[in-house]
Design goal:
CATH class of the largest domain in chain B: Alpha Beta
Low-confidence stretches of chain B: 1-27
Mean pLDDT of chain B: 95
Oligomer: heterodimer
Structural class of chain B: alpha/beta
Radius of gyration of chain A: 16 Å
Largest interface: A-B, 21 and 29 residues
Number of strands of chain B: 30
Number of strands of chain A: 9
Largest sheet of chain B: 7 strands, mixed
Strand content of chain B: 15-25%
Number of helices of chain B: 30
Distance between the termini of chain A: 27 Å
CATH topology of the largest domain in chain B: Rossmann fold
Low-confidence stretches of chain A: none
Helix content of chain A: 25-40%
Strand order of the largest sheet of chain B: 6-17-18-19-4-5-30
Strand content of chain A: 25-35%
Largest sheet of chain A: 7 strands, antiparallel
Shape of chain B: globular
Chain lengths: ~150, ~800
């Protein structure tokens, strides 16, 4: 299942925001969903799918993380509607934002044309051309990194 | 509900819409309505539903002649009045080779739209969506955001299953492909150092080809012409300008710039020789090269001629470009003594191997070592859209999204004619391969390819090959005349829209209010695509459930401002101010400060004077470092014996590309009723030509008639004909018939810059010139074709 909105998740005293589109394990318990997922926590406090991932999928909001990266399992509970079965349903809003903002002057280029790192730099220059706000840039970057070409 | 009540509600609805979007519509007598164009914001005086006068808005700091010509354009004699279909297309006899030479038949809108829908469906059914070619790629027809044919057409055709699209552009096609390899960014369209910083810090501006006083008359959005004051302030402050250009352009006089005449299409040797001078005289900034660039040693080997035996010194360059060796050296020395901006327009990269122009400028600027310093380094759009105007940060009013295009074929802008004639052919393109689709239907709206595309005769051959040609146009442009189905489109004056300007500063949002009712049977592009969407059953997806007025409000709502839409619309504009951070912006300052953290988007993260990636493509027409390659069609080639003059095609002073050429302003600047050809006085005298003579300018691709203007303001051996005159064949039913109007792209080649960018190279062109004899035909470019009332 995939998160259709950002979600606050915990591991002991650590608390983190996990971004839209992240895939998680989940089980239904009564009316609620119990969500769990293991992340790689970098020493900058960013959450990754694994230690070799390029783009973060969340970030630590509070708690002590030390200086070395480590794996940790985070949990949360959520109501119906937060989880969806496939990635494309999870990111429909970001998808429209991408097509709205980046599909006017030229076609919206396919996200898998470039790696996430490459997109980050492209956004730096397209940011002013397209007049997007900081928030929109973050969302578009999240969208692109979910669908970007994997590093070859 | 009875009919009266329904009518009443409809009227009340319309009334409410007028109240919100068009308050002047209620006033009696003369009305003054604000609107905005690529030439500036304006006030239109309207009497009895007709525009009687156009005035510039007060906020326009330096109004231009082009603005006032809009009245003429709206009421031009050659407006397309009704939907028209080429006769043999309508009667089924399909004499497609007669496109451009046949009469049209007037049809009603229903019939015309059915024919368009039928042709699209048939093409899709028989050949697939990739056989539909959308030529509409840029947005120069008007600055409106909602009625933008390029995005509307893509939106409709995308829902229809897709189309073959264009990638890159005609303006800076080589630069936008090479610079990401070199600088990690397209650079030519990116925000550059703010004007205040340049005014404060810069001491010397080297301008290759740039003519800001001409090109900044217009903006991709709406200009307020603030750059003239900036440039004049620089002049008054004593900043030195040097203009390297085959013509002594407008800005040379305005800026008191030093004119360095150069042969056409030969800037690269001069730039390389400046690099060599800095190396030879140990004047270059070694620290900068070491810290911020890669591949200098490879470039240096080339400069020293280690492989080809040619040292790229000033003497070597002088032979090619005609600039005295002493001058080349002097400019190089001067550049390192001052805070120097290296600027270039894009005309010098519209040559064969045009990639090398900006790449060698980057090499030069790297050796000067001031990239990232306030007022130094590179500045590749000083001539464009009021570059340097500090960005207000409000965002732009949005356009409608193009949506998705299920067909993933992108053809570089310059390849149109080639593609039409060579389906299935595979070409190289920036490290990839690209196969031309089999185009069967050409669809244009808000654009005239038989205008900007080089080698018109070849393009016309391509046009005559396909099954269907569809065009939306307000006027009988050459493209409309070579079409099968011509749909009369409104001008921006005939509908509401929204825009902003300047392009980089976004100091204003503008209400482009409807000034007059649509003329004749004209309809908005938006509505034409809507009618087609209805026929295909995706009307809802096309409109997104919004009316045009709602889209305008939506577009405005995307700007970050507190001014309400109704206040904005009532006043006609909103003004925004820029924050201090924008006024202090220095291009690449962050990279200079910390090249590791703020690395560039190149493989090395640094400026690449040698690109392993480009070298790995193995293109002999675009090696891995900036280099000079002798052009196929240069003054040193065998062709020069037959065609001894170099031809350049600068942007026009008195029109926007081809726009406004059908007005009195256009007519005023013709010579002997045709497009002027500028030639050096001595060349003219030597050939016995005088002002106003009608001449033939010709080469193997075609012949045009033009009016001679001898002048001191052009390098010997170079001819200039401004781009944008409308094409008219003397005998349209004959192939390669001479153009009676002087459309310069009859003569230019569609040879690509190289396999890297596949961009246009129109300024690499050789021609001959001779006095035209015999009875001279009339210039028919601005006529309407014969239109019958029925079959």
């Amino acid at each position: 299942m995939y998160l259709s909105k950002p979600l606050k998740m915990k591991n002991g005293s650590l608390s983190a925001i996990v971004y839209t589109g992240t895939s998680v394990q989940s089980e239904k318990l009564g009316k609620k969903w119990i969500i769990r997922k293991q992340f790689w926590i970098s020493n900058e406090g960013e959450l990754f799918e694994s230690s070799s991932s390029e783009a973060p999928t969340g970030n630590v909001k509070s708690g002590n993380i030390g200086n070395n990266g480590f794996y940790a399992t985070f949990t949360a509970s959520a109501k119906d509607g937060l989880l969806v079965c496939n990635l494309s349903d999870a990111i429909t809003e970001m998808d429209s934002l991408y097509y709205e903002r980046c599909g006017t002057c030229h076609r919206a280029y396919d996200p898998d044309m470039y790696t996430a790192a490459h997109w980050k730099k492209i956004l730096e220059s397209m940011k002013t051309l397209s007049g997007i706000s900081q928030q929109e840039e973050t969302e578009i970057m999240r969208y692109l990194s979910l669908l970007a070409k994997r590093k070859d | 509900m009875n009919t009266d009540r329904r009518e009443f509600l409809k009227m009340a609805g319309a009334f409410a819409a007028m109240l919100t979007c068009n308050p002047e519509a209620l006033a009696a007598g003369d009305r003054v309505i604000t609107h905005a164009t690529h030439m500036g914001p304006l006030k239109a005086y309207v009497r009895n539903g007709k525009i009687v006068r156009i005035e510039a808005m007060d906020i326009d700091l330096d109004p231009v002649d082009l603005l006032f010509a809009h009245k003429d354009a709206v009421y031009a004699r050659n407006r397309v009045k009704y939907p028209c279909v080429r006769k043999s297309y309508l009667d089924g006899s399909d004499r497609r080779h007669m496109r451009g030479a046949e009469e049209f038949v007037r049809v009603d809108w229903g019939t015309a739209l059915d024919l368009v829908a039928e042709a699209l469906a048939k093409t899709k059914g028989e050949y697939g969506n990739e056989s539909i070619f959308k030529t509409t790629y840029a947005r120069w027809a008007h600055p409106g955001r909602i009625h933008q044919a390029a995005s509307l057409q893509a939106r409709m055709l995308g829902l229809f299953g897709g189309f073959t699209d264009i990638v890159g552009d005609y303006s800076a096609g080589a630069a936008t492909q090479i610079l990401p390899h070199v600088m990690g960014d397209i650079e030519v369209y990116s925000q550059q150092t703010s004007r205040e910083v340049v005014l404060d810090k810069t001491e010397l501006i080297l301008m290759w080809g740039a003519d800001p006083f001409k090109t900044n008359k217009i903006d991709y959005h709406v200009p307020i012409h603030s750059d003239g004051a900036w440039l004049r302030k620089m002049k008054d402050k004593g900043i030195k300008f040097v203009t390297i250009d085959p013509t002594k352009n407008m800005s040379v006089d305005e800026l008191g710039s030093e004119w360095v005449p150069i042969k056409a299409a030969s800037d690269v040797p001069m730039i390389l020789a400046m690099c060599y001078t800095l190396y030879e005289e140990k004047l270059y900034n070694k620290q900068f090269i070491d810290k911020y660039t890669v591949g200098f040693n490879v470039f240096l080997k080339y400069l020293r001629g280690e492989k080809d035996g040619k040292v790229k010194n000033a003497k070597w360059a002088e032979k090619i470009c005609g600039v005295p060796a002493q001058k080349i050296k002097e400019l190089a020395r001067m550049a390192v003594k001052h805070r120097t901006l290296v600027t270039g327009s894009w005309a010098p990269q519209r040559i064969q191997y045009g990639e090398q122009f900006h790449w060698s400028l980057v090499a030069l600027a790297s050796m000067i070592g001031q990239i990232g310093l306030a007022g130094g380094g590179i500045y590749f759009n000083i001539h464009y859209c009021s570059a340097g105007a500090p960005y207000t940060g409000v965002g732009a009013p949005l356009m409608l999204s193009q949506g998705r295009n299920p067909v993933n074929i992108l053809i570089p802008a310059s390849r149109m004619g080639e593609m039409l004639l060579n389906p299935g052919k595979t070409i190289d393109y920036n490290g990839k391969k690209l196969t031309y689709p089999n185009i069967k239907l050409i669809y244009s709206a808000g654009v005239t390819p038989i205008g900007h595309q080089p080698n018109v005769n070849k393009l016309v051959e391509g046009f005559r090959k396909v099954d269907t040609v569809i065009t939306h146009e307000p006027w009988w442009t050459p493209t409309a005349r070579y079409s099968d189905i011509v749909l009369p489109a409104t001008t921006s004056f005939e509908r509401n829209d929204i825009s902003f300007g300047s392009s980089y500063g976004i100091e204003y949002a503008f209400a482009m209010k409807q000034v007059i009712s649509p003329l004749f049977d004209a309809r908005n592009d938006y509505d034409i695509f809507l009618e087609l969407s209805k026929r295909f059953g995706f009307e809802k997806a096309y409109t997104g459930g919004k009316s045009v007025d709602e889209w305008i409000r939506w577009s405005y709502s995307k700007m970050r401002t507190k001014v309400s839409f109704s206040d904005f619309w009532k006043k006609g504009y909103v003004h925004f101010t820029s924050p201090k951070s924008s006024r202090e912006y220095v291009r690449h300052a962050d990279f200079r400060k910390d090249p590791v953290a703020n690395y560039l988007r190149t493989p090395s993260g640094k400026i690449e004077l040698f690109s392993e990636k480009v070298a790995s493509f193995g293109y002999n027409d675009c090696p891995g470092y900036p280099a000079w390659i002798e052009p196929t069609e240069g003054p040193a080639s065998y062709m020069a014996k037959k065609y001894p003059f170099q031809l350049i095609t600068p942007h026009p002073i008195h029109r926007l590309h081809s726009q406004l050429d059908n007005t009195s302003l256009g007519a005023k600047h013709k010579v002997a009723g045709r497009e002027p050809v500028y030639m050096n006085k001595f060349d003219a005298r030597r050939m016995g030509l005088k002002h106003g003579d009608t001449v033939e300018v010709y080469n193997s691709r075609g012949t045009v008639l033009a009016g001679v203007v001898p002048t001191e303001k052009i390098t010997r051996g170079v001819l200039a004909i401004e781009e944008g005159a409308w094409y008219a064949a003397e005998n349209p039913s004959k192939d390669n018939s001479r153009c009676v109007s002087g459309q310069v792209n009859i003569l230019t080649s569609d040879r690509p810059t190289s396999r890297l960018a596949q961009a246009i190279s129109a300024n690499t062109c050789l021609v001959a010139i001779r006095k035209a004899g015999g009875k001279l035909p009339r210039n028919t470019a601005y006529d309407s074709p014969p239109v019958r009332e029925r079959l």
